[in-house]
Structures are given as C-alpha cells and as structure tokens.
Design goal:
533 residues, mainly alpha, membrane
Length: 533
C-alpha cells in the first residue's frame, strides 16, 4: 500500500458524483468564444468600426480594469481573447476551486474520507483525485475552446494559445485549492480562502493592466496569463508551460502539508469555544446567524471594494463602445437607454446581482451542509421544528443579498458620484438599480431550496448548475443572439433597467417574487416530509 493507493476508484467516484455539474461547466465555458466569432463580424463589419473600437480601448484604463489590455481588436481572434479570455479564466478558476474542495475538505467534513482511509486508501489519494478531476476539466475546457475557435475559421496557433492559457489558469487554481484544503477545518473556509486568492489575483491583474508604469505586475496574476500570451498576435506559447510549472510547485506544497495534519483537522487549528454557550444560541435563528455571519461579512467587504472601484471607472467607459451603432444598441439594451455611463452602471449592478445570487445559494445550501455533517439531527431532536430550522437559514438567503446589494449600490454610487460631482443623485440611482435585482436573486435561491427539499443528494451540484446557466445566459446570450425563449430561462434577463427616460415595469418583478414564494414553500414542504440526511 502506498500513499496513492485507491486513487483510481476515487477518481471514478468523483466523476460519478459530478456527472451533472462538471459537463455543464465544461460545455458552457467552452462554447462561448467560438460562438461569438460571427457576432464580432456583425457588430464591427467594417475596418473603420474595428479601428474605432481598437483606438478607443487601447489606452483606456477603465476598460483595462474590466477586460484587460486591448492589444489588437481589429481581428475576431484578438477581440475574443480580450473580451472573454479573462472572464472564462475566472470561471474556470472557480470551477477548479469548488471541485477540489468538494472532493477533499468537504469529504473530511462529512467523515466519509476517514471511513475510506480506514480501508485500503492512501493518504494522498483524495487530494490526487480532486486535483486530477479539476485539472482534467480545466484542460478539457482549454482544448474544446481551441478546437471550437479553429472550427470557426480562426488561426490554430492563436486558438491553442488562448485555450491552453485558460487551461493553465485553471491548473494553477486547482493547486491553490489543494493548499487551502489543508489549511482549515471546514470546506466553506477552504473555499473562502481560495476565492479570496482569486479576488486578489483579479485586483493585481486590474492594477497592472490599468497602470502603464506597472504593467509587469499583471504577470503576478494567473488570471492575466491567457491575455499576456497575446493570442492571435504574438502567440507566446511558453505561457502555458509556465502555468504548468507554477501549478506543479504549488501542488507540491499541498502534498507536503497533507501528512502534517490529522484527517478532519486543518493546519490552522480551530480555537475552542467558551465553556457556556451565549443566550443568542438558544434559538435556531441565533445558531444560523453564528454560522452565516462570517460569510456575510466577507462578502460585504468584497462588495464595498468592487462597488467603489467599478463606480469610479464609469466616466471612462465610453471608449469600450467605439463608433459602432449596433454595439451601442446592444450595450444600451443590456443596461438602459439613457447614456452609455448609465448603461454601464446598470450593467455593473447586474453583475452584482449575479454575485448576490452566488451568495444566496451558498446561504441556502448551508442547511444542506449542516445536514450532511450530522449537525442538524441533534438540533431537530431538541424540539426545534423542521420549518423553523430551515427557515432560519433561508432568512439569510433573503436578507443577505438585500444587504449586499444595498452595499453595492451605495458603493458604486459613491465611487461615481465623487468623480461626477453629483453624489446624492448617483447613490440613489445605483441603489435603486441594485435593489431591482433582488427578485431574480431570490428566484435562484428558491430553486436551490426546492432542490434541497426534494433532491437532497444532487442539490449542491444542481444548484450551482442553475446559477451557472442563469449567469452565462444573461451575460452572453444577447451578444451571441440567443433566441428569446432561451434568454427567458435566466431570471436576470427579466430585471427591468432603471434609467432616466424609461418606464419602470414592475410586472416581471412580481412574477419573479411569485416564483420565489412558490418554489421556497414547496422546498420547505419537501424538507418536512423526507428523511434527514
């Protein structure tokens, strides 16, 4: 028996457990670049349009913060690498983090890994299985992306430079997630640390890309490497091997940490609690607040930082559009019709709404985590009703996103208002635009509650699949010309845009709220009738 004994069966088990969520991640992220080749040709049909876009974005720091440096937007390949390279790498990184944590630290949380470890399973088998599955998915996304671009008629060298660059970013964050899984005792903390790493990487890249004198700083962020490889321009093929080397080094650190801790424990030991519980823990809501408050605080800090940064960039966004009337119409349709700056702000708060949905699903699935960890059953055995216990967690899926969107709206309005000299109006405007995102956020969380009530075994991957589909359709559906019936699947498509000169239609919000109430109530009913665990 060696440290890797049992790795093969664990890989097969992981693939079986992820047979729903992993193909969705792979297909959605792989097909986006190739599907936008024709969209580019329609949006910028003439060389003058393409040159206008290129000249407007090449030296615009506001645009560089969002999308990275615009090296050459006069070709479909250069535009795709600029427009989608960063964000696809970001989503691949998130996929890798969730996958590794789910098959390592989360397995320890539930006690399953200790049970397997008592059999013929080596100490490194679980980590290896998680790394192989997440890393393999990252590479597969890169290969399919490259093949799709080649099939769309783009040069093979540039297509594989971009695809492998994206895969390399996924491999690096696969290794980072392997490290964070060794540091803490709980999967939520491991995910939180790894996501903080992604956030730091994004901010480092944003600073480097938007600061001419410090452009080298971007090389410190793996998220910047797909664009720094300059696909379809210079095709720096050595960037992908660089990512592999970094991933191997970081993964070696993770393997070195594994034998330095006990199974179920983290390298950072948890502090013992007080001898007597405070009175606030005498109710289900008090317990839920204790479990949820750290996550809510971390998200709130992140929303403040992003709100101020993106709000302060609003005045420089016009360079993103160029002179193409078709692009102006699409951008206006995404974020409003009264001015490009207003459209940008509405698009930004739309992104905050999607991030709020991620938090809402995390808050909803916390009750499933407590259930699988065996913590729910003792609480319910103490006379707490199932409805009360589940509702205490769902409160945070309702109130938490509202708090985050208020923070986002105020922060973005503050960041823009200081530059525009119209602080009061900008804060009220962005705050209103943020709050109308709430029904869509609640609808996504309600679907997660419905899945937890009736399909608990697949509720976690299925809930994230719902989030992924809703976000991808809302972000990229209008640009690639999806049919309206497909766009209607995403609740974020139905959110009205609050812009001066437009009529506010509350009907979609009422429908979304109705769907939320029905789905959440049905999920609670299902939870009430099924067995715990």
């Amino acid at each position: 028996m060696t440290g890797l004994t049992g790795t093969g069966p664990l890989i097969r088990l992981a693939l079986r457990r992820d047979r729903v969520i992993l193909p969705i991640w792979i297909l959605l992220l792989s097909v986006i670049p190739a599907s936008t080749v024709k969209a580019y040709e329609q949006l910028y049909p003439t060389l003058a349009d393409r040159m206008s876009l290129n000249n407007g974005t090449a030296t615009n720091p506001s645009v560089a913060v969002l999308y990275g440096p615009a090296y050459d937007l006069t070709t479909p390949g250069g535009w795709i690498a600029w427009r989608y390279g960063l964000f696809i790498a970001l989503f691949v990184a998130l996929m890798a983090v969730f996958t590794v944590t789910r098959h390592t630290r989360a397995e320890e949380d539930t006690g399953r890994l200790e049970l397997l470890g008592s059999a013929v399973v080596g100490r490194f088998a679980a980590l290896t299985a998680g790394v192989v599955v997440a890393g393999g998915a990252s590479v597969l996304i890169g290969v399919i992306t490259s093949a799709g671009l080649v099939g769309a008629g783009l040069p093979a060298a540039g297509a594989f430079t971009l695809g492998l660059g994206i895969a390399g970013a996924g491999l690096v964050f696969t290794a980072i997630a392997g490290v964070t899984a060794q540091l803490t005792e709980y999967s939520r903390s491991a995910n939180g640390l790894a996501i903080c790493g992604i956030g730091v990487a994004f901010l480092v890249r944003a600073f480097g890309d938007s600061t001419a004198s410090a452009h080298w700083v971007s090389w410190l962020s793996p998220l910047a490497w797909p664009q720094q490889a300059k696909p379809f321009i210079d095709d720096k093929g050595w960037v992908a091997p660089l990512a592999v080397v970094v991933a191997v080094v970081v993964a070696a650190v993770a393997y070195a940490l594994v034998p330095r801790r006990d199974i179920g424990a983290g390298l950072f030991a948890g502090r013992p609690g007080p001898a007597n519980a405070p009175r606030s823990l005498s109710s289900p809501f008090g317990l839920a607040w204790r479990l949820q408050r750290g996550s809510l605080l971390g998200w709130a800090i992140g929303f403040v930082v992003m709100g101020v940064i993106f709000g302060s960039l609003a005045d420089g966004i016009t360079g993103l559009i160029g002179n193409s009337e078709q692009v102006r119409e699409i951008f206006a349709r995404m974020g409003g019709t009264q001015g490009l700056v207003d459209a940008y702000l509405s698009a930004i708060v739309g992104l905050f709404g999607m991030l709020g949905a991620v938090y809402a699903v995390l808050a909803t699935l916390r009750m499933r985590t407590e259930e699988t960890a065996g913590h729910a059953e003792p609480v319910l055995a103490a006379g707490v009703s199932r409805y009360g216990w589940a509702a205490s967690h769902l409160v945070f899926a309702v109130v938490g996103p509202a708090v985050l969107l208020v923070i986002a709206g105020v922060s973005a309005g503050l960041g823009h208002g200081v530059h525009a000299g119209d602080l009061g109006h900008q804060i009220s405007h962005t705050l209103s635009a943020s709050l109308v995102q709430l029904p869509a956020v609640w609808a996504v969380a309600a679907v997660a509650a419905l899945l937890a009530g009736f399909l608990p075994q697949v509720s976690t991957p299925a809930s994230w699949a719902v989030v992924g589909v809703a976000v991808v359709i809302a972000l990229y559906g209008p640009a690639v010309g999806l049919a309206q019936a497909v766009l209607d699947v995403s609740p974020f498509v139905h959110v009205p845009k609050l812009q001066p000169g437009t009529d506010f239609n509350a009907t979609p919000l009422l429908w979304l709220t109705g769907v939320t109430v029905v789905a959440a109530a049905t999920g609670l009913f299902g939870f009430r009738r099924r067995d715990i665990g």
